[in-house]
Amino acid sequence: MSAKSTRPSGTCHLCGQICLLSKDHVPYKKAFNQETTISYTMVDWLERSATGQFQRKGYLQQGGVRYYAPCDKCNNDTGHWYGGEYITWSHAAVGILQQHCSDPDSLDKDPDPKWVRLIFKQVYPLRFLKAVTTLLFSVNSPEFRLSHPDLATFVLDKDRTGLPDRYKFYLSLFLGPISRYVGVAGKLDVNSGLMAHLTEFSYPPFSCLLTIDTPQFVQPCGVISGFADFRYDQRADIEIDVLVGFGRTPYPGDYRSQAAIDAGQADVPKSSPPE
Q1: What is the pTM of this model?
Q2: CA–CA separation, 200 vs 140, rounded Å?
Q3: Rounded mean pLDDT of 136-143?
Q4: For site-directed labelling of 139, which of 42, 61, 204, 239 has its Cα 20 to 30 A away?
C-alpha cells in the first residue's frame, strides 16, 4: 500500500490545472535558498513589542523558502528552462557583492544609497527574466494568472518574447537580513500621490520586483523589462547599474539601510546611479 500523499490539491498558479501541487523553492534551491527560515506575516510585524520582539512564533520552514504553487509539469518545465540561468546570475552576484560590498555592516550604517554596476558576460537575459516571472507567480495567489494571462503565456512558452508596457521589472542587489515576499499590493507615493501596484520577492543576493500599470516607480535604476525582447537562445553581455539594498522592513520596494531608517529618510533613493 502506498503512503498517502501529503501534498495539497489546488489550482496550479501557472497553467490553472486542478491537481496535486508541488513545492517550488523561491528562489531556486541552488541559488542559496537552502537554509532554515522563520516566516512572519505583516500583522506579526505590526504587533511587535516596543523593543521589536514578535508576539507570536513564526512559521518554521526547513530547507529553504518554498510554496505549494505549480503543478509537477509546470515546475519541471520552468525549472529546466530557466532555473539554471537564475542560479548562474545569483552566484555571479555574490562574487560582485564580495568585491564591492565586503563590509555590509558599514553600508548599513551609511544613510546614503549604494550603487553597483553588474557586468555579466554572455548570459541569457530572457531566461533570467522568465525565471523571475515564474517565481513571482508562486509568491502570488492562483488568481494572479487570471488577471495577467500575458505573463502566464510568457512563462509557459519558453520561446515567447515581448511583454506589454504595463509590466516593468526591476532588479537590485539585496543583502537582507530580512527576506521579503509580497503578492500584488498597492504602494502610495506620498510626494506624487500616485499609487504603485507591485509584487516582489527579495532573497539574497537579489531583489526582484514587478510593477503593474505604474508608469514611474520610485526606483530609478535596475530596469530589466527589456530582457523580454531577447530570444530564448540569445546570449548577450549585460551591464546594468543596480541599487544595493537591505531588508529592514516588510514593505515592498524599501531597500533602506538601518541608518537611513533611523534618519527618517523616505524609501526613495536620494541619489542617482553613477554615470
Answers
A1: 0.92
A2: 9
A3: 97
A4: 239
